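Thread title: Can someone regenerate the structure for this chain?

I was given the following input by a collaborator and told the matching structure tokens would be attached. They weren't. Posting the sequence so someone can regenerate them.
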Amino acid sequence: MQNIFTKTIMAVTVLLLLNGSAYAGSSIVIKGSTTVLPVAQGTIEAFMKKNPAIQMSLSGGGSGEGIKALIDKTTDIATSSREIKKEEITLAQSKKVKPVAHVVAHDAIIPVVHPKNKVTNLSIDQLSQIYQGKITNWKEVGGDDLKIVVISRDSSSGTFESWDHFVMKKAKVTPKAQMLASNGAIVTAIAKNRYALGYLGIGYINKSVKPLQVNGITGSAQTALSKAYPLSRELYMYTDGGPQGDVAKYIAFVKSIEGQKIVAKEGFVPLMDLKKSGRK
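Best answer:
Regenerated them for you:
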């Protein structure tokens, strides 16, 4: 896993231009999920080395913002850590946009605590009770007599919506929860607070936080790919209709063996088992 500070890109657009100069040619705009940002950034850098005439811009802001930009036709690719919603599809169709999903990686949402927290495993029910504010002390789940500080992603995040689907099942998150805008912000908050509980995409786990098992199962590349881990999901890039031209070329690169090696390097789960393929 790479250091978190090399991965965190907030909602400010980052224009990636090789050798410090712009090239005449086409451009690709990518907006959306902060979870997918490391995958997008890594693959963009490699892709542009092969295709220096293509300019590419990348920004975060959340899965919902990326999909909104696709619907508004202000991005070529929307990155998302969740599936597009029915109401988003309906709105897109009303604007003559046809969202097409491209799965580019797998992920596992991992509950995380401070490294000094002695808890190692929580059930989905325990996680739900904590995030609803019904369990409020670590001693209730086998930890020390310390008040739990609940930390969550904000509601524009695809990871928040995935957490809602897997864990909350439409129950409300306690109003006492701290709602943060990115995976990187959660890592920082958990690392500084012995009382805190949060959740991250697997690619953001580092030594400053302690990952927990869920239902006794460790989140890993293997358990995410097999779906044995209960909080496993796909990561997406959405286009308006089937991708064409340079956009199609870029998405094909992301899904290629070379692109999937970058997915793995960034700490996420590639679409295929690279070890079995003998190409890692």
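The first helix runs from residue 37 to 50.
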